[in-house]
Amino acid sequence: MAAEGGNGKGAAGPSGARTYPDFSAPTVDKVMVEERAAALGKRSIKKETKVAGLLLSIAMMDLTTLEGKDSPGKVTQLCQKAMRPHASPEVPPCAAICVYPKLVPVAKHALAGSSVKVASVATAFPSGLSALDVKLEDVRRAVAWGADEIDMVIDRGALLAGEKTRIFDEIAATKEACGQAHLKVILETGELGTYDLVREASQIAMLAGADFIKTSTGKVTPAATPAVTLVMLEAIRDFFYATGKRIGMKPAGGIRTAKQALHYLVLVKETLGDAWLTPDLFRLGASTLLNDVLMQLEKERTGAYQSGDSFSKD
């Protein structure tokens, strides 16, 4: 059965057996993708464009706290920072706060009346190694508590074992459980081993109904890299050409500096164009990135760096 735009459902064939979209994906040229990703990181960016890019990167950030010591107070403070990262009115709010399901009501209350979304990890994050009914209940509960977005993890062991239809079915079921909430599918690229498998996993996720595909949980090394992000962006581009459907992208984990953030924006612009340069279609998973971007903005404004102590560490 040919791909039909990612409706997330396998169809019943003439014999009653389920049939699936075509999961096949082009082979990735490792040398080419790594060289191109590196080259795009060397682009010279003029001052006005740099400032615009830094402000845009803030608007695209998902501020994240996913630690065992997370508390209502910590989440509330992070929400305050997401709504107003800086005293200057030119600095926009962040895109979302990402928390564990238990803390979704806290974030929802703290963000009431703002544009900042509440995202929640689910589906036995970060391993994905629970029974499907447990994963789906995790999703439904997070949505019922107010999550606008769900960040799910795939079962990497199943994918590495070649169980592609199982991955497809789990993503499709998770999408259904999300209701009106957007679904980000985390591939955990650092555990997949090859660019070819990353490309194929991206294809499966998009066909199954993902609204976004995401590199990593932030719990595995390596996490996001420019090269693996480029592979996923190219998968999104080809999916758009085939179906007309725009899928979002979220690199996450290990993105700590303003220079890195600008590199990722260049990757998006050169691969997908300006249409994807919006928080609706591109996010940066960030826990420590925001302060470095704010420091760079201050340097562009005043000509001097401020100390990192000038900004909250939340």
TrEMBL record:
<dbReference type="GO" id="GO:0009264">
    <property type="term" value="P:deoxyribonucleotide catabolic process"/>
</dbReference>
<dbReference type="GO" id="GO:0005737">
    <property type="term" value="C:cytoplasm"/>
</dbReference>
<dbReference type="InterPro" id="IPR002915">
    <property type="entry name" value="DeoC/FbaB/LacD_aldolase"/>
</dbReference>
<keyword id="KW-0704">Schiff base</keyword>
<dbReference type="InterPro" id="IPR013785">
    <property type="entry name" value="Aldolase_TIM"/>
</dbReference>
<dbReference type="Pfam" id="PF01791">
    <property type="entry name" value="DeoC"/>
</dbReference>
<dbReference type="InterPro" id="IPR011343">
    <property type="entry name" value="DeoC"/>
</dbReference>
<dbReference type="GO" id="GO:0004139">
    <property type="term" value="F:deoxyribose-phosphate aldolase activity"/>
</dbReference>
<dbReference type="GO" id="GO:0016052">
    <property type="term" value="P:carbohydrate catabolic process"/>
</dbReference>
<comment type="pathway">
    <text>Carbohydrate degradation; 2-deoxy-D-ribose 1-phosphate degradation; D-glyceraldehyde 3-phosphate and acetaldehyde from 2-deoxy-alpha-D-ribose 1-phosphate: step 2/2.</text>
</comment>
<keyword id="KW-0456">Lyase</keyword>
<protein>
    <recommendedName>
        <fullName>Deoxyribose-phosphate aldolase</fullName>
        <ecNumber>4.1.2.4</ecNumber>
    </recommendedName>
</protein>
<feature type="compositionally biased region" description="Gly residues">
    <location>
        <begin position="1"/>
        <end position="13"/>
    </location>
</feature>
<feature type="region of interest" description="Disordered">
    <location>
        <begin position="1"/>
        <end position="21"/>
    </location>
</feature>
<comment type="similarity">
    <text>Belongs to the DeoC/FbaB aldolase family. DeoC type 2 subfamily.</text>
</comment>
